[in-house]
Structures are given as structure tokens and as C-alpha cells.
Amino acid sequence: MFRQLSERFGHPLAMAILTLLGMWLIVMVTLPQLQMIDYSFRPNLLPAQRGGPEDGWTLGNYVTLFDNEIHRAIFFKTLWSSVLVTLLTLVVSYPLAYYLAKVATPRQAALCILLLIIPFWINEILRTYSWFIILAFRGPLNEILLALGLIERPIRFLSGDAGVMVGMVYAYILFMVFPLYNAIESLDDNQIRAARDLGAGSIRTHRRIVIPHAKPGIATGCIMTFMLAAGSYAVPALLGSPGSRWFTQIIYNWFFEGGNWNQGAAYAFLLLVLCIGFMSLVMKFFKVGLGDIAK
Amino acid sequence: MDGSVKLDEVVMRFGDFTAIERTSLEIASGEFFSFLGPSGCGKTTILNMISGFLTPSDGQVMIGGEPMAGVPVNHRPTAMIFQNLALFPLMTVYENIEFGLEVRGVDKRKRREASERLLALVALEGSGSKLVTELSGGQKQRIAIARALAVEPRVLLLDEPLSALDLKLRQHMRAELKAIQRKTGITFIYITHDQGEALTMSDRVAVMSAGRIQQVTDPMTLYRAPLTGFVASFVGENNRLEVKVVDRQGPRVRLDGGALGPLMGSAGEDVVLANGQAAALYVRPEHLRPVDDGYTGPRLETTIEAVHFEGAWLMLETRLDASGEKLRVQLGSDLAKQAAGMLEPGRQVGFGYDPEEAVVLPDDGSPVVDEATGEVVETSAKGEAEAGGAHVSSA
User: Fold this and answer.
1) Looking at CA atoms only, how far is residue B325 from chain A in angstroms?
2) Quick one: which of A20, A183, B110, B388 is 20 to 30 A from A212 by CA?
3) A204 CB near a chain B CB, below 8 Å?
4) What are residue B58's DSSP bridge partners?
5) If you classify domain B289-352 with CATH, what class do you get?
């Protein structure tokens, strides 16, 4: 790599680029992570006790999760809800991505993509607050449903998981739509036409032709959405109720309210392992490699 | 099984652009029918109207006597072979061939029997479990044919399917396609810009230009008796000479070639020529032969500019002494041998032709030729009215 770089940019510049890259990877990525791993395996001690007889390696912080019934329930609920959010986002995004890639004229597609992107120019917290307003007990959605006569009394969207789900599907839809769009767009139109010509209806055409082709895109979108959902803090904090706590909120509490960084670090790593595990499962299920996803 | 196709007064417009002018045409069941024309002439549009991917703006398409209006692509008794074949790359050969049957709910054992039978038909026994990506170009071609035939279409639509193959394979596949068509008795509708393909395989050919069918007839007639200047220039090679009609007796037409002197040609019964009218005389390169001074028939005095030896024949590029126009001459090897001494660049040679083989048509403008490929693209707008007069409604 150094040879190629120095041939192109000259020796000093190549050196500088590699040094900066190395610094970035080591100082800003690797070391903090190692520090956190180290934290997670040590007990939470007062500064004076550090390095003393009580200091040492322990699995205690990891065991906490399995001892604490509430935390464990929230951990698995986060897993399950993130899977649901991912599936829901996929279901909402697929028709949209297909429309953008194969049905819409270039003009319509450009307009649609613009409309999709514009809200994302606004901060995620603000966007989430807007859902808070929309879904509120006396908010516009309830008003409209009441006015249409579809419901008799307002619904508490924001108690339970529904509000969190809606907020997350909305927050991460682009991370699903674009990988799907890219994958579907690369499908030769004649493949779809050939399937139709051989007698396939539209459901079968999607099942046998479009979806198999779009598999890497579906996998990428699902992995991204799942990671973002499982690691989301703002949406559950704003749209969730005490009854729908997310695991990230517990991690936050350990760090900033409990002041127990060691415990927080252990929980954070458990969440990371969960995400990596989910990612490998999805990749195995869709039979795609890391290379396909990086495309 | 009636595989006849009828275009009844169909028109196809895209916004302001008329891709297909009002056209009527009947294709008989079991016929090998080709649409021949340069790219953009509308031939693919016609195919798409038959397959159902496009709905005509006016008029209707009938297949087997049944109107197809409102019948979607997946319910039409047609199957298409796409230009890029569009085999399903994620499926095996079996799965590709059986796709149409799977859709129709045929059980697995029957599907496999059908695909084995079709693999035998296209001479690819034993490759059913391969992925289509493992096949060569020619093999993919055959699998595409097998996949389309699997649904037992009444009409098979072929959209320039051979254009991706190299020359040798293409010529081989022509014979094979024709053989398959004979064996199955299915109506084949073939789209191509390659006249070689159209002439060798088809029972009848429709030559198209600018959204209009110029002529529909069998390949031999198409070559010998073109009805429009476009057909004369597009099908085979032709020398075009601008002339004036002197008079006509039956098929024989006496012409005034201006500086070229008196010339002769023949015109079909359908061709209307008035005395004194501007016309074009088409003489094919292979109908010209060197003549000596004693020859009394119509002759063209030329100077040879280049001689190309093509193996079985000799191609001469000459220029007419009187008008400076180019004249191409093709001599068979025996004629070339006889005249060996005279055929050198710079030599002046007179060429004669048999007036029966030279076609006279009303002047409908000189052909527009694609600079890059040298192929005829269109006839110029001049005399569009006459070309319109020759608009064919064939039965």
C-alpha cells in the first residue's frame, strides 16, 4: 500500500497519509475500545482503591445482566423489538424502493428521493419530537381518526411500544430504502419482463426474480436498520414510556446516573455482541458475504 | 392450435411521436415471419404490441382469431426470446426452463419430463443442473429457446436473439432456429436488422422504415422486385441511378439516363410510372458484367478505382465516366478470371446488365446511409407521398 501511495503522491505525503490513518485507527478507534473492554472486566472502585487489593479482573459486570431480571427482560425486549422494527421497515421500504427503481420515471424518482431526504436535513431529535406531537393523546393523528369516525376515543400511542416502533421505522427508513433501491435498480428490466412473459403474476415475479436478486441489498438494509434500532437512544427516550424502555437507556443510566462506567461498559459490549451475532445470522440466512454488503 | 397473428389497423403513439403508422398485417399460423428494418424503425414496438408489453394507441392485435385487448402479458399465448436472452442467472438450467410450467402449476415430475424433452430438442441433454452462468453464448441461446418453448406458446417472438453471437455461431443458429420452427410448427415472429437472417430463415419478410411497413413478401421477391426505393437500397446491395422514364411496354421501361445515355430497366405491375417522370434505376453489383465494344445493350462506361478480392468473388469500386457517381460491381470468380487483365485500378471498362434484372421505381429520394456502418437508415423525405402510396396492406 505504501508503494502505491508513494508512487502517486511522493514519499513524504504517503508517509503523512499513512501516519494519519494509523493515528486515527489506533488512537481514536482501537484504544478507546480497549479501554472500555478493560473497564468492563474490572469492579467499580473509588479512585483511591484502584490498583489496590480489590482491583483485578472479574466477570461480575457481565453476570449482573443475568442476575437482574428486569435488565435481562429489557435486553431481550430490545432484541425482539429491533427485529420487529427491521421487518416493519423492510415491509414499508420494499414497495417504495421497487417503485423508485423500476416503475417511476427518472423525474418522479428524483422528486420522491428528494422528498424522502428533506426531512433528514432536520436533526433526529427534532424529527422524533414531531412524532411525539403527531402521536400525542390530543395530537393531530387522534384528532383526524376521531373526525373520520374511525375511533371513538383517542388512543394512547405513546404508552407501549407502538410510538417507538413508528418513530424508529421513520428514523431509519432511508437506511433500508437506499440499499434496496440500489439492489433492485441493478436488476435488468428484461428479467422482470421475461418472468411476466412466461406467465408469472406480480407476486411470483417478486418472489422468484426481484427479491432473490435484491438479497444483498435486503441484508445490508436489515443489518443497518437493526444496528441503528438496537443502538438507538433518542427515539425510545422521547417516544417510549416507562413501559417500553430500551437497553441503551439502561447503559446510559449506568454511565451517567449510576456513575458505574464499568457496569455500563459491560452492558455496551453485550449489546455489541448481540448486534454482531444478529448480523452474522442475517448474512448466513441470506447467504451473503461481507463483500456483497460493502458493495 | 391457431397461431395466426393479425394486426388490425394498429397505431402506436408515444406523446407526439408516432412510432407505428396505421398498419394492418396478417401472419399465418406456423409461418416464420420477419420484421426487417434499421434500428428505430418500429419493429420492436410491433413485437411489444403482440406480446402485450405495449397497448396500441388505436386498432387491435388478434392472436389465433381472438382479440388481445385487455389480455395482460402473462396471459397471452406468446413467448418472447429477448435480445439479451434474459435468462434467470440465479437459477439452474432446469429451473429456467421449468419457470413457465411452475407458474402454471405443473407438478415437478411433469416439469422435469418437459425440460428433458426440450433439452433434447436444443441438443443440450445433461446440462440441466448447470447454472446458466456456466454456459457458453450459444448454449445460453438454446436454453432461452427451450425456456420459451416450454410454455407451449402459439406464437414465439424473437427480438434479435442472435445479435450477441459471433458470426460462425450466428450462421449455425439460423439453420437451427429454422429447423426448430419446422419441427414445432409454431408461428415464429422474428425481429432483426440483419437482412441475412431475415432472408435465410423467413417464409415472409416485412421491411420496415420510419414506423411503416414498406413491403411484405417472400425473401426472393423482396430481393428481386422491391416495391420502394428503401427496400431496394436496404435489402442487398444496389447501385442507384437517377433517370427519367421515356416510355414503358409491359414490364420493360426505356429510360433516359441523362449523361449516361439511354438505359433500360423493368418495373413490376404494381409500380406506376408516367412517361417523363423522374425515377430511379437499381442495378445490383452482381448483375453487372464487363462487355466489349460490340455489345449493343444498355452499358455503363466506368473507370475502375479499386479492386477487392473476396475469395469467391471480386468486388470492384468504379466511377461512372459520364456522371462521376460511384458504381459497385461484383464479379463471380469465373467472370473475374476471364477479364483478369482488364480489372486494374485506372482501367476504363464498360459494364452491361440484363434489363430484366434492373428495377425501375419512382424516385423517392436517395437513401440516407449511416456514416459509421454504411447501412441504409432511411430514405430522404423527398417523394414521401409516393412511398406512402406503396404502403402495404398485405393479406
Assistant:
1) 46
2) B110
3) yes
4) B11
5) mainly beta
Residues of A in contact with B87 (CB under 8 A): 194
The reply to whether A51 falls in a domain is: no
| CA distance linking residue B348 with residue B182, whole number of Å | 50
One digit per residue, the tens of pLDDT, for chain A of length 295 reads 778 888 888 888 989 999 999 999 999 999 999 998 988 888 888 777 777 777 778 888 888 888 888 888 889 889 999 999 999 999 999 999 999 999 999 999 999 999 999 988 888 888 888 888 988 888 898 899 999 988 888 888 887 788 888 889 998 999 999 999 999 999 999 999 999 999 998 999 999 999 999 998 999 999 999 999 998 888 888 888 777 788 899 899 888 888 888 889 999 999 999 889 988 988 888 887 777 766 5
CATH value at residue A202? 1.10.3720.10
Distance CA B197, CA A55 (A): 86
Give A-chain residues touching B90 at CB under 8 angstroms: 212-213
Cell of B381: 423525405
CB B209 within 8 A of CB B41: yes
Nearest residue of chain B to residue A190 (CA atoms): B86
- Domain with A186 in it: 69-294
Query: What per-residue string of b and e applies to B222-233 under the rule 16 or more CB within 10 Å gives b?
Result: bbebbbbbbbbb
| Position A126 in a domain | yes
Q: Would A149 be classed as within a structural domain?
A: yes
Q: Is A190 on the interface with B (CB under 8 A)?
A: yes
Are B352 and B297 spatial neighbours (Cβ–Cβ below 8 Å)?
A: yes
Domain ranges of chain B: 5-222, 289-352
The answer to whether the beta carbons of residues B38 and B231 sit under 8 Å apart is no
Rounded CA-CA distance A51/A54 in Å is 8
Give domain status of residue A214, yes or no.
yes
- What is the 3-class SS of B12-41, one letter each residue? EEECCEEEEEEEEEEECCCCEEEEECCCCC
Instruction: Report chain B residues touching chain A, CB-CB < 8 A.
Output: 51, 53, 72-75, 78-80, 82-84, 86-88, 90, 99-100, 103-104, 147-148, 151
**What CA–CA distance (Å, rounded) separates B360 from B265?**
6
State the architecture of B5-222 in CATH terms: 3-Layer(aba) Sandwich (3.40)
How many folded domains does chain A comprise? Answer: 1
> HSE (CB half, 13 Å, CA atoms) of A215?
16
Beta bridge partners of B385: none
A52 vs B: CB within 8 A:
no
Among candidates B72, B84, B151 on the partner chain, residue whose Cβ is nearest the Cβ of A198: B151
- Tell me, yes or no, if the two domains B5-222 and B289-352 fold the same way: no
Complete edge-to-edge strand list for the sheet that includes strand B299-309: B289-291, B348-352, B299-309, B313-320, B326-332
Residues of B in contact with A187 (CB under 8 A): none
Q: Which residues of A touch B74 (CB under 8 A)?
A: 196-201
Residue B86 is nearest to which of A188, A199, A208, comparing CB atoms?
A188
